[in-house]
Amino acid sequence: MLTGIFVSAKVPAAKLRLLSANSQIFRGGAVGSPSGTSYKFVVIASASDAILKIDQLWIGQEYFEVKVYNQKNGTTTFSKKDTLEIVAKKFNPNDVQLNNQKQPNPPAQIAVPCKYKGMALLSYQQGKKRKYLSIKKIETQAPLNHP
Q1: What is the SS3 assignment for 17?
Q2: pTM of the shown model
Q3: What is the mean pLDDT of each run of 10 residues along the chain (147 residues)?
Q4: Which of 1, 56, 90, 96 is a good FRET partner for 33, with 20 to 30 A between their CA atoms?
């Protein structure tokens, strides 16, 4: 009589893989144009947009809302292993209004959910689990001065 032993091991879900993290100061050219800092993080998607929701970012202790774009086609839809750009902006509060347009309101501040080592913490939901990616270093790019 043969006895089979089956060992079941759960394979851990893939994590986001960070390719680059950059910040760049921008200045508007026209009087009253906004200025601030733009942040861009490039990652490889660990799942499709139906499963993966990248939605929160902290730089230091400051919370940022993010927008996610597929690098291939510029849309918000993506598949597993697609390259994604995650962008966030911080506007300087001292900028004046131009043509009666208001600057975007800063997002409500949300406390950092956990201690982390590095310059930034990216939070995402994959399936029903909340996950975090600690970003050790953000490379600074040359300032962008709009004409």
Answers
A1: strand
A2: 0.81
A3: 40 76 88 85 96 96 95 96 96 60 67 94 94 96 86
A4: 56
